[in-house]
Amino acid sequence: MVKAVIDLGTNTFNLLIANVNKGKIYPIYKDKEAVGLGLGGINEQRISEQAIARAVLCLSGFKKICDNFGVELIHTYGTSAIRDAKNQSEFLKQVLDSTGIIITVISGREEAHLIYQGIQYSHKFSKDSIIIDIGGGSTEFIIANASGVKDLVSLNIGISRIFQFFTFNDPMTDSDIEVVENYLEQNSEGFFNNKHCDLLIGASGSFETFYELIYKKPFSKLYKTHSLDFTLMLELLDTIIYSTRAERDINPFIIPMRKKMAPLAAIKTRWVIRKMKVKEIIVSPCSLKEGGLLI
Questions:
Q1: Are 140 and 112 in contact (CB under 8 A)?
Q2: Could you give the CA distance from residue 96 to residue 197 in angstroms, rounded to a whole number?
Q3: pTM of the shown model
């Protein structure tokens, strides 16, 4: 069956079309667009009119692509910015009226479970591992091993929320970094207390950018995980955190949608590594989209 998943993230809308047969995913087409759904309103729990217009335009294009590929089933998932929006109903209606797309708004826990299912497609768990999916509105953390999910949480500590909540220097100062780390600590609901995992699994997104920055080559499109040199990763995170916007703007391995908020993703990743006493990092190309295809 030719299926599609559209992940309506706070920063980015992602489309994946694939032939799904006997639990195997055969990708046909992928696309992503920096819609910025959470810009100008996420911390006030609303989607701005400008963001709604950008979303409708993007989804109209995605729908045409799905039609052209003969997609039989579209799963469209609304995540953090949509589930928290007071004008959610208005947004869903405008999208339906304009595109015919019905959006399923999922909870943070449902989102985390879909992410786990996606990661599981590319990685065989053998020991306690923490999955991290860095989003614009929320970030999902899943602790899993060979027996399945041990614990999970979806926290409203997405990088778009933080970016719009505070004003930072360029480059960030130690004081700025402390502000972010304190914010993460205060809003993590004690999830990391007394928990340790040797292995961190980064779910696509920012982690693919980290891979490309370290190895200076495109991230593989195959459905398999890739190891990151731990020492080089720690050095890279520090480099990103203290980089200027001008430096990131000319870096060809940082895609445009990540240039603005990359230091926040790096701070969060470094913070989790330290909290969980991580010793090994791998990157999976899979996340919510793949998990949604396997339903």
A1: yes
A2: 43
A3: 0.97
